[in-house]
Automatic annotation (TrEMBL):
<dbReference type="GO" id="GO:0003824">
    <property type="term" value="F:catalytic activity"/>
</dbReference>
<feature type="domain" description="Endonuclease/exonuclease/phosphatase">
    <location>
        <begin position="3"/>
        <end position="187"/>
    </location>
</feature>
<dbReference type="InterPro" id="IPR005135">
    <property type="entry name" value="Endo/exonuclease/phosphatase"/>
</dbReference>
<dbReference type="GO" id="GO:0007508">
    <property type="term" value="P:larval heart development"/>
</dbReference>
<dbReference type="InterPro" id="IPR036691">
    <property type="entry name" value="Endo/exonu/phosph_ase_sf"/>
</dbReference>
<protein>
    <recommendedName>
        <fullName>Endonuclease/exonuclease/phosphatase domain-containing protein</fullName>
    </recommendedName>
</protein>
<dbReference type="GO" id="GO:0031012">
    <property type="term" value="C:extracellular matrix"/>
</dbReference>
<dbReference type="Pfam" id="PF03372">
    <property type="entry name" value="Exo_endo_phos"/>
</dbReference>
<dbReference type="GO" id="GO:0061343">
    <property type="term" value="P:cell adhesion involved in heart morphogenesis"/>
</dbReference>
Amino acid sequence: MVHQRNYDIVAITETWWDDSHSWSTALDGYKLFRRDRKGRRGGGVALYIRGVLDVTGIETNDDEVESLWVKIKGKANKADILLGVCYRPPNQDEEVDNLFYKQLNNVSGSSALVLVGDFHLPDIFWELNTAEKQQSRKFLECVEDNFLSQLVRKPTRGGTVLELLFTNRNGLVGDVEVGGRLGHSDHEIIEFSIIGEIRRNINKISTLDFRRADFGLFKRLIQRVPWETVLGNKGVQERWVCFKTEILRAQEQTVPVCRKTSQRGKCPVWMSNEVLKEIRNKKKMYHLFKEGLISQEVFKGAARACRKKSGRPKPSLNLT
């Protein structure tokens, strides 16, 4: 979905990640910032940010608060943007809420700020900024003290607004849409645009250009190496070093180097037209279901078909 929609930034709450997930969380072309819940299961937040954006993480040192902050560099003479994602579990203690309020006060300052997350405060009526519970009213006070505006108006789970989107600048955030789901989640996705001039890194990383490689010459160079002499009377480790040295020497002569380009807009090879078709159909059925034009069973059927197509594409690839 990230590659299909071509997002620059993806914020996720309730990742349920721990150290055992370190190998499986990478996304090609994106930097990953994550904060896992400490000492117990569940929770956690993450930010995937496109690699060409100039971003630095901000340390908060509040292990109890499940939040993550980064600073996105603006272009020359343009303001930086502070971006945060937060997960507030249901029935969170007031003490942890207070730590979050303090954290928000510390990081915000005079910076342009965008904060998104799952806050589990269903009793807040955002049209009038009122709430039934004292804890929710205190949250509203923090929002007002930091001059934040909340931009989500449609329900994000059932009939309640749990996912929230805040900013402290008029015109900084636009195109806010609620709809669609990620994986098996029962929460709606929030899509929005951050309207600002953001600095993009110039990629200076070099890589091997195998499309212009002379494999014929490479093969001849390798065949000329007197391997019995080079590897004779050596241990396994020494043989490996000698072998690697000869391969790299031949590579330098036969494989040119080019600058690595951005992967922006490129889909993974397993993202076939059939998979894209099912994803689009699922989204279409979802909107029809929300408008009451089709039954829930019809939507679930489309969702199952999408999972079936997108969940099993990789084994069908032929690697030669």
